[in-house]
C-alpha cells in the first residue's frame, strides 16, 4: 500500500458555517417570540397551573380483585385437601391389607394348632391301645398279637429293657427338646431308653453317636444306637430293635415310629452295652 494512500477518518464531519448560522437564527427567533409574549401579558395574570389526576380503583374493580384472590386461595385449599384425602385413602388401604394379612396368619396358625392337637390325640389313643395290648400279653405269659411285643420277648437283659421301653413309646408325639413322658425328640428317647438299663447317655445326638464302639450295619444287635450323619456330628439317632427295624422319634408329622431299615438307612451304628 502507498504511504500516501488516503485513510478515512472516524471523526464526525464538521457542520458547515451556513448551517450553524441558520440554526442560531431560528433559536434566536423563538426566544424573541417568547420574550414578546411575556411582555404583552398582563402584569397581574395568575400563573397557569394544571392538575393531573391519577386513575383510582373504583368499588367494582376492588371487589373483582378481592374475589379473584379468594378464588385463588380456595383453589389452593381444595388442592391441598385433595392431596390429604388421597394420602389418607392410600394409608387406609395399606392398613386394611396389613390387618387382613395378620388375620390370615392367625387363622392359619389356629388351624395348624387344631390339626396338631387332633394328631396328638390320635397318637395318644394309639399308644394307649398298644400299651394295653403289651400289658395283656405280659399277663397271659404268651405271645402277644403285637409284633413289637413278640420281638421284645426274645431280647433279654439290659438290651431287652432298652428295646421294650422304646417300643412302648411308639405313637408318642415328637417335640423338639422333648424328654418324655409323652413327647420326645430323637436323642431324648434314646437317652430315656438307656436309662432303663442304668446307662446315662449324653443328651444330644452328636455326643450319643460317639459312645461305645462302632459296629457294622450288617452286624447289629437289639439295643444298638443308629445314627444319621457323621459320627460326632449326627443329626438323628434311633434304637435298633431287631428284625431289621428301628424305633425313633422322627419328626412332628410322624412322632415316635417303628420303621424298617430300608425306609431310611442310617449312616452308622455304635454299641454301648
Characterize this entry briefly.
The protein is an alpha+beta fold and 273 residues long. 51% of the residues lie in helices and 15% in strands.
Shape: rod-shaped
CATH uppermost class of the domain at 156-271: Alpha Beta
Distance between the termini: 130 Å
Rg from Cα: 57 Å
Kindly name the structural category. Answer: alpha+beta
**H/E order of the elements?**
HHHHEEHHEEEEEE
Mean pLDDT: 77
CATH superfamily of the domain at 156-271: endopeptidase domain like (from Nostoc punctiforme)
Beta-strand content bin: 5-15%
Write the layout of secondary structure elements.
Layout (H helix, E strand, L loop, with lengths): L16 H24 L18 H82 L6 H6 L4 H12 L4 E2 L8 E2 L1 H10 L9 H4 L4 E3 L9 E6 L2 E10 L2 E7 L3 E6 L7 E4 L2
Parallel strand pairs: 1-2
Antiparallel strand pairs: 3-8, 4-5, 4-8, 5-6, 6-7
Description:
Helices cover 51% and strands 15% of the residues. The chain is built from 6 helices and 8 strands, in the order H-H-H-H-E-E-H-H-E-E-E-E-E-E. The chain has a 6-stranded antiparallel sheet. It is rod-shaped. 21% of the residues are buried. About 10% of the residues have low confidence.
Keywords:
single chain; 273 residues; alpha+beta; endopeptidase fold (from Nostoc punctiforme); six-stranded antiparallel beta sheet; two-stranded parallel sheet; 6 helices; 8 strands
